[in-house]
Amino acid sequence: MSAAVLTPRAGSRRRTPGRIVAWVAEHTLLTVLLMLFAAPIVFVALTSFMTGDQALTSALWPDPWSVESYVEAFQRVPLLRWFANSALYAVLATLFMLASSIPAAYALSRVRFRGANAIFVAIVVAMLLPPQITAVPLYIMWVKAGMAGTLLPLILPNLLGDAFSIFLLRQFFLTIPREYSDAARVDGASEWGILWRVVIPMARPGIAAAALFLFFNSWNDYYGPLLYASENQDWWPVAYGLATFRGSHSTNWNLTMAITMLVMVPVVLIFFFAQRVFVEGITLTGVKG
Amino acid sequence: MTTVSAPSGRAASHAVRPGLRRSQRRRRLTAYGMLAPALLGLAVFFGYPLIASIVFSFTRYNLLDDPQWIGLRNYEYLFTQDPKVWVAAGNTLWFVAFLVPVRIVCALAVAGLLVRARQASGFWRTAFYLPALVPPVASVVAFVFLFNPGTGPVNAVIRFFGGQGPLWFNDPALSKPSLLLLGVWVLGDIMIIFLAALLDVPREQYEAAELDGANAPQRFRYVTFPNLVPVLVFALVTGVIAALQYFTEAAVASTVALGKASVGEGAGAVLGYPDDSLLTYTQWLYVRGFSNYQLGYASALAVLLFVVAALFLVLLLRRVDAFTPEEAQG
Q1: Residues A88, A152: one domain?
Q2: What residue ranges in A41-198 does DSSP mark as E strands?
């Protein structure tokens, strides 16, 4: 940030009245927009700290402030179990994906071989086509394997690669100059050796981004658990539980908002710790002309 | 628009010393080994179910009995008799037609503002990106609460100013526009890509245009826009494909606004609330397949979705080279 401020370009901008007016107008607009964008989260948070009685009114400010909603939410539904299920799903899916997709992405980005392009195209197609297209046969497959009613049909496939993760990792590996792996090759390193000692250490931000994306996608997943685990509450992840909560447990908004907060907070916290990596990953999924 | 290019560098592998060729063959074998799990995954979790969907679409199948071949009957029913498929397809097309362009225009506008905010740029970017990170289920629940007609803050504010707030998610005419507002709130995902593209536009091009006397709209038309075309195409095509499978937001909005959970058999009664206005195509597929167990018919619905999605996909794949940085194309 300091670099941008210190460049001569920024300094050479004359402070003409026109520019000042534009600055004020832009920042006023940004501030108003920011308030609109922040409002949903602010109101959710405020309502989650209301008492049950107050949540029945259209009051906007908690009076008194109370953590009753959070305590009651834990009593009404097995929230801890839901969180454990979400964590199990997200962590295992991410670890499995990394084990299977990093070598695949390496092969696609670093080794020249017949069919590489066709495989890459197949991966892009698999990544982009709506999952509902293949849902019926996959569902039948998992029912026959006796795993419907659990989250395993959503976790196990990651052992055999995840199309989006392979795509993202390949994009990142391509940004690492070939000279490094070529040099290791001349020194007699094997492909696994190059992957392990050259590419992985240099690709840490890309790997972190791919891991975060899959972790968030699994944590947020609604369609998958609806399909495979909706009839077995023991396996519900918290996002799915939240979607059903108001219908089956309470129409009271303060409880629903408390759980909404609890679902959001881990994701937002992780984001703040890994922000730079994450933004880098997102722009990588974009394209260049 | 270029087509898929042949694997580069193969020509160079001819006419090299035998020892080098042996080591290259070994490297290629290692590459196939590294790819083996992913290739198996592509075959088992993508190739097979894609073909099986097409085969099942010609059968009647309820999971208990063996599939029974019925030829084109599922398609006949789909195109001539299904009571809701066109309502559902219409709703999905509504999201394709409105959600995608509105999100792109708003994201571009916010990115345009952010690119000019030089002080505390990190703060502004994070603030506008953050909603995109909120788990979709949580953001839908939050919006249904915000807009709920009884105690919702939005209508409370409208009442404060003496107005009469509408029913939002409980009104068939406003349920889709309400989800549009949610889509704008979570615009961060494409905004950040636009922002990166805007920051990449060489400053010299603006300065040259300014010297030539170009005004602001002309600078956008002749400098900014051409630099943005690749990301716009990307956002458009991926946006359309995402809108074609629009499911979670609509399903959760119906469930929460109605106040009834949708599990298994009861899903058909809940999804689409209010009045089928939020019943999207993929939800209809879910209802027919997984709560009515008409798996053959659901496969026919899946095949139609595949055909439509594939048309859009071809548009993107024709630009597949855009995914490969020039320096790596060798």
Answers
A1: yes
A2: none
